[in-house]
């Protein structure tokens, strides 16, 4: 695995984890009973973004280490997903 591939893998895992973590423990304006005129009642009032970013990063590092370890060890490779035999030598 190249450094670029490792960084791309981490970025994909980080953003996917962020999308899972974002809706956790969010308090909307409707929940708080203080809706600002011109905004939707579902707009966040208390979002805890800094804490969510740290949680996202921590979970992403663990997931990345597991997935990168599997890829580097060779347990799973690109050839395992070559169902149409596109990677066979043409000779």
UniProtKB/TrEMBL annotation:
<dbReference type="Pfam" id="PF07330">
    <property type="entry name" value="DUF1467"/>
</dbReference>
<feature type="transmembrane region" description="Helical">
    <location>
        <begin position="6"/>
        <end position="24"/>
    </location>
</feature>
<protein>
    <submittedName>
        <fullName>Putative secreted protein</fullName>
    </submittedName>
</protein>
<feature type="transmembrane region" description="Helical">
    <location>
        <begin position="54"/>
        <end position="76"/>
    </location>
</feature>
<keyword id="KW-0472">Membrane</keyword>
<keyword id="KW-0812">Transmembrane</keyword>
<keyword id="KW-1133">Transmembrane helix</keyword>
<dbReference type="InterPro" id="IPR009935">
    <property type="entry name" value="DUF1467"/>
</dbReference>
